[in-house]
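Re: duplicated header lines in exported structure tokens

Our pipeline writes sequence and tokens for each protein into one text file. With two proteins the header for the second block appears twice in some exports. Here is an export where it did not happen, for reference. First protein block:
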Amino acid sequence: MQRFVVGRVSQEKHFLQWRRSLSQLVQNKAPLQENDLLLPKMPPFDYSPPPYNGPSAADILQKRKQYLSPSIFCFYNQPVNIVDGKMQYLFDEKGRRYLDAFGGIATVNCGHCHPDVVDVIVKQINRLQHSTVLYLNHAIADFAEALASKMPGDLKVVFFTNSGTEANELAMMMARLYTGCNDIISLRNAYHGNAAGTMGATAQRVWKFNVVQTGVHHAINPDPYRGMFGSDGEKYARDVQDLIDFGTSGHVAGFISEAIQGVGGIVELAPGYLPAVYSSIKKAGGLFIADEVQSGFARTGSHFWGFESQGVVPDIVTMAKGIGNGIPLGAVVTTPEIAEVLTHRNYFNTFGGNPVCTTAGHAVLKVIEKEKLQENAYVVGSYLKERLLSLKDKYEIIGDVRGRGLMLGVEVVTDRKLKTPANVEILHIMDQMKEMGVLVGKGGFYGNVFRITPPLCFTKEDADFFVDVMDYAMSKM
């Protein structure tokens, strides 16, 4: 049994309450039968994993309880033991195939164990696993050049990190150093990481500990579904100007935001919001930090970077997750002028720019281009969204379908008018979908949003199977 609620003193109490609620919900529900002719059929796939002879799920779970932090939790009533992966599919210890609609939290953009990415990793690790950026190696320079070519404007200087949290920490520090100001404006419902500075920028209580967090102001979230101004981005943007006028000296270090809030429940910012906010921030002398950790690298389909959908060019862009297809890698990209602030003292990252990681990152860019994954994310994502919208017409439990490309969210509610979160029901649906071979994420402030962020090689057949499985699970509620 795993803890489901994290970051609160009453973790175990909430978890037991959830288990009791879930048990009551599934009482008298007929179990799924594999021979049920009505069950959706998974698309064929020409791959069989080698036999697995390792520890069982029960053994691993016991060892996790004994040796890993109790803050680590699992999805599902019976956690799945994933031992193999190929493209958009994962396999458990018994060789059962699952359609991966979560992509390792919007990370495995090219597909699990993509041969082009694996090949360059193996070749590089056989030649040189690690040296240091204090020596020359072509891998880091080649990837930085390729990454800069994907950026607009004068964004062409790269600093490599190991994660999105590190990237956002560095970006916020650079903004403060460059402007000489401390105040940073973030959004409510945002998630930017779990270190000292990024936890301050994060604005959901479940991800924040009671430690000192200063210098960050949280603006009203431009949420088209739950927000007070609907889809009017300019009205939300006025709150940023108010924060500058009444909460700061009139000068700020910067503004940080995701184009689509991932952990926050796939919330796409209201149209016109970022241009209006950028105008206010620029007048206050601040920099614009675009957090592309989840929405970057072609995931939104319509653009390579999420911020491009709002027609803005940031001063600093942070990225991770999809950058390495699962390899620990992150980056901060900025202008030459802003990058100079790091030369005022020594700033160093032992593993940032590691040759294996940067070789993998370069391969990811090549695969995205060669296999037209951005186009696929747009075509398949648009098709999937339309199918989900048709499901919304069928089931009252679906309150909203949102997002773009292959970064989609389905918010479930028990009352559409009141938008009451269906945070117990979503767990039951997830478990039922897992039993039918689909793995999907969840998030949002209330924990009631399906996060659909599959590998970008997802097909229309996969989309059909996903929606059919969700349809079947909801029909049995």
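Second protein block, exported in the same file:
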Amino acid sequence: MENYLLRTGITLPMLDKLSVIHVAGTKGKGSTSAMCESILRAHGFRTGFYSSPHLVAVRERVRLCGTPIHEHMFAQYFHEVYEALYNTQRFKDDMPKYFAFLTVLAFHVFLREKVDVAVVEVGIGGIVDYTNVLRKVPIVGITSLGLDHTSILGNTLAEIAAAKAGIMKPNCEAYTVNQSPEAMRVLEKVATDVKCSLKIVPEYNSYSFQNGLRHDIALEAYQMNASLAVQLAHAWMRVARENKTNHRQETNGNEIINGNSNTDLNKATSIDNGLVQTLTKETVIGLRDCKWPGRFHVIHTDSADFYLDGAHTKESIEICAEWFEQNNRCRDKVLIFSATGDRDAEVLLSPLQKINFRAVYFVIPTAYKYTSKQNDNFSILENDELLQRCKNHANIWKKNYNNTTTHIMECVSEVIMHLDTENCDISVLITGSLHLVGASLAIIDPNLCLI
């Protein structure tokens, strides 16, 4: 990564000037990052946001001020970065892979567009993630940890926690949620070793609200992510003001940061033991207005109500199943499912088998059967391999729960057309993979992710 950045004109000292909130974790790192970015934007800061994967269009991964960068901007920076890398190859195919390239691209965008802060979500793991080329990160967040990507990160919570904790840097401030004792011991040890602070965020229901403006969050998992987002955003604002104070510029007695007057943020938000206790109006607005498609997401159409959630771990699938069941106790229910990579489909399907689905569709996670290489959702995997995976998932379902009608289909559009022919008012749960959710959104509401 250092090599790729240098070949495109970015030295590590230049990258050090990018003020970053770095977020890792197994579950909820995307929604935590999105809420954190939205809070900072509501406070008036110019934000960058790098996340993965995208749902419909690759531009979703690189956002400025909450919006995916425009096609023209993406094309401009893409060609600048690609040509710089291509022209400096030392040997054939001396080029970064897909995620590495997009990471270099994102850093270029954020530096050139002069964002105040960039919220950067880790791809996989942390210590060896491409985003961890960052050396100076003031604020780090680690969301709930669980078993995922075990072939890469390890088979135990301790091994996974060690991988995720790799984003901690000397003298940074790290924040996390309540973890299992096994994972927390590792996080605390790493924090001690690298000499950074580590704080556990409070329960969301413990916050008080200024001026009576509240934002209630029904899902417990989202409450946890929201609390972490609040602490990350406010910690960054506090550090930014402290740094600015060191190079103070007086304007009528008030320090100015990017157009915002320096109100006493600590007093306004009630700081206790380094943690925010009271939420300001701007923070509540940021939480309320945050849009994060494909996660606990409901779309109502004339033919069906679609419930989309990109859950792909045991714990997140359990939460997803509970959310769907609570909202659809008295309706006909249909499941569309796909799991990718090395994930244990039997573990993922188990919580879903407790729901009385009328039909279950196991589908290749692409919108249409034939997808060209120019499409942002193109997969390099062979169709036969993907279809066999669907058949394996169907066999797992039948082995444990044989009373449901099952279908195997080659793309999401085939499933949607089949649902239309049934001509019935139904609730459809789409889960197991963010790639599946993205393919579904490309058909149901393709513009939603680009708003």
